[in-house]
Design a protein that fits this description.
InterPro entries: Metallo-B-lactamas (IPR001279), RibonucZ/Hydroxyglut_hydro (IPR036866). The protein is of the alpha/beta class. It has one domain: Metallo-beta-lactamase, Chain A. It is built from seven helices and 14 strands. The chain has a seven-stranded mixed β-sheet. The protein has a seven-stranded mixed β-sheet with strand order 7-8-9-10-11-12-13. The longest helix has 11 residues, at 213-223. It is globular and about 55 Å long. The N and C termini lie close together (8 Å).
């Protein structure tokens, strides 16, 4: 299974809009290091049957798909309904036109209900043959229970994202956990045995809604994955600093990174 990192930045990306010259706020990140430029967090899984599953539709989606040469997928998993994870939903109309059918959207019932309230027209039935708007069919998923998505078994599970919840994604021995700072006990059991874990790490100091470096180190000790890949990183997380200071088994993602994991 191939994983493409479409974006690995926080809700404002890196650099954030602003700065003395209007060209961005970089924080601790060196602007000369291209891997410090981060769009909003999203990945695409290319399964063993060649089906594509997108996780989240952030505001940078069109540019991300073009930059990574992605022209098709059939399913979307939504982790939660915050704007940096859903506001590019209209862009999937281009995918509808390529595959000539509606896309399938999976997530927690409350997440899909929230997205449907904000993008009600996207979830209206398709009237063939043309796509004048994006067309998506909602499939609520019970957390912690296996669900077949694009012919492959997934488990979606609950996460604590500050004052709200979010959804983690497990496929085989790969787990994606963006926008999380704690896990309910049932979800810890879902994490057991993970090999490659892509996980939120917004900054070095504690945060009220996102994991930070010390919290990630605690999870490494508790869950013991072979490989942890940091995502949803803010302007505190400089690429070279991470290269120099992260312990063995933990590495930063970057926009456009591609890696493979065992097929589920």
């Amino acid at each position: 299974m191939k994983i493409t990192v479409l974006g690995c930045g926080g809700s404002a990306g890196v650099p954030m809009v602003g700065g003395a010259d209007g060209h961005g706020i970089w924080g601790a990140c060196n602007p000369k290091e291209p891997r410090n430029t981060r769009t909003r967090s999203s990945i695409l899984l290319r399964l063993k049957n060649d089906a594509g599953v997108l996780v989240d539709t952030g505001p940078d989606l069109r540019a991300q798909l073009l930059a990574n040469g992605i022209k098709d997928f059939e399913s979307i998993i939504f982790t939660h309904a915050h704007a940096d994870h859903i506001s590019g939903l209209d862009e999937v109309r281009a995918i509808n036109r390529v595959i000539q059918k509606p896309l399938h959207a999976y997530g927690a019932a409350e997440t899909l209900e929230d997205i449907q309230r904000r993008f009600d027209y996207v979830f209206k039935p398709w009237t063939p043959p043309n796509f004048f708007r994006a067309v998506v069919e909602a499939h609520p998923v019970k957390m912690g229970q296996p669900v077949t998505i694009s012919g492959t078994e997934f488990i979606l599970f609950d996460q604590v994202h500050g004052r709200v919840g979010s959804t983690g994604v497990r496929c085989g021995d790969f787990v994606y956990s963006t926008d999380v700072m704690e896990f309910p006990e049932d979800s810890v059991e879902v994490l057991r045995g993970v090999d490659t874990w892509m996980v939120d790490c917004f900054q070095r100091q504690p945060h009220s809604a996102h994991a930070w470096l010390e919290r990630v180190l605690e999870w490494q000790q508790a869950i013991n994955p072979r490989r942890m890949i940091l995502t949803h990183m803010g302007p505190d997380m400089d690429w070279q600093w991470m290269q120099d200071h992260l312990p063995a088994g933990i590495e930063p993602a970057w926009d456009g990174a591609v890696f493979e994991v065992a097929d589920p």
